[in-house]
């Protein structure tokens, strides 16, 4: 099977990830920091090391880096933990439902209001202008995705972050499709809430993610409970990251994430981005000569959406599955993005490579799409 659904989760993982998860479960699978014994101390040490590595990689501080279960969890902490009654939020027209739905729920509960700024692909000025036009005195947060998970559009995050800072807004970034592939440093980019999945570009296992905070923001916890610290205190501690990490952490996942991150550091985000871009360029060229294939997005670098005329995307996806290619087809948990690109009727077929895919695999995919488009596979 050729796996090209890495935007959902990367597969396979580097060998070092499998080894780290297995070593943790076999050798020191104790509850981190919950007891005085050596195994618990070793587990806690691994958690701390990984926290430091993530913080260093993204230019944040370890004390302000909290582990989460995935990117959705990090985004919920960021939005629900920070926003207060009467706040107004601006998001982009390419947001994932992980951003849209918590905001919609808060809006329905009468807590906040929000507006959607249209992203104009490859036109930073126009995109920024659309954001500026929505600004209100009560606007508190600008929250955007870095890269669209449906169309691969890269948002002008530097300009948006500087704009937010200049207007006194908090800036939140959904780095679900960029962490581990694009360079992101909180030292250079004024981001206050950086939301990451551990299981995509950082090559950790599923069930991992992180929320990195600037020192301008300390979200309220959404889940209270044992933190392994201040144990006689009745109230949830305020100290970060403990305040956001109640309950037993996903230790095997965190160990795997640490290994995935060191793999990314060894290879380098530049090389990873270059590899993915090369594959997507090849696919774009191949698809451009197949009659009836419509491609979306302006030269996306890391993933590509297309559809075949007269065929629902899901059907194309299942035919590709039968031919040995795994892609995601249909709707991609991003209602706003599908509306923006007018694909709410058919959905799209999304191809998302990782470092482990090859040119041959892309050729194989293009060949299969050609066969389907010519009606040779039913
Ligand atoms: N935001 C974007 C842009 C995504 O692509 C995804 C995953 N499809 C998410 C958020 C949610 O990530 P997770 O699956 O880690 O919760």
Task: Report on this structure.
- This protein is an alpha/beta fold and 378 residues long.
- The chain has two domains: 15-266, Aspartate Aminotransferase, domain 2 (3-Layer(aba) Sandwich); 268-373, Aspartate Aminotransferase, domain 1 (Alpha-Beta Complex), CATH 3.90.1150.
- The protein contains eleven helices and 13 strands.
- The chain has helices at residues 15-27, 38-57, 71-82, 97-108, 124-132, 157-166, 251-267, 269-288, 313-322, 335-340, 359-373; strands spanning 2-3, 65-68, 88-92, 113-117, 139-145, 170-174, 193-197, 209-213, 293-296, 304-308, 325-326, 328-330, 348-351.
- The strands form three sheets. A seven-stranded mixed sheet has the order 2-8-7-6-5-3-4, with helices on both faces.
- Helix 2 (38-57) runs parallel beside helix 7 and helix 3 runs parallel beside helix 4 (97-108).
- The longest helix is centred in the first third of the chain and has 20 residues, at 38-57.
- It is globular.
- It starts with a strand and ends in a 5-residue tail after the last helix.
- 50% of the residues are buried.
- The protein binds 4'-deoxy-4'-aminopyridoxal-5'-phosphate (PMP).
- The site of 4'-deoxy-4'-aminopyridoxal-5'-phosphate has 15 residues, from helix 3.
Low-confidence stretches: none
Arrangement of strands in the largest sheet: 2-8-7-6-5-3-4
Q: State the end-to-end distance.
A: 19 Å
What sequence of helices (H) and strands (E) makes up the elements? EHHEHEHEHEHEEEHHEEHEEHEH
Percentage of helical residues?
A: 25-40%
What's the CATH class of the largest domain, please?
Alpha Beta
Biggest beta sheet summary: 7 strands, mixed
Q: What's the CATH superfamily of the largest domain, by name?
A: Type I PLP-dependent aspartate aminotransferase-like (Major domain)
The CATH topology name of the largest domain reads: Aspartate Aminotransferase, domain 2
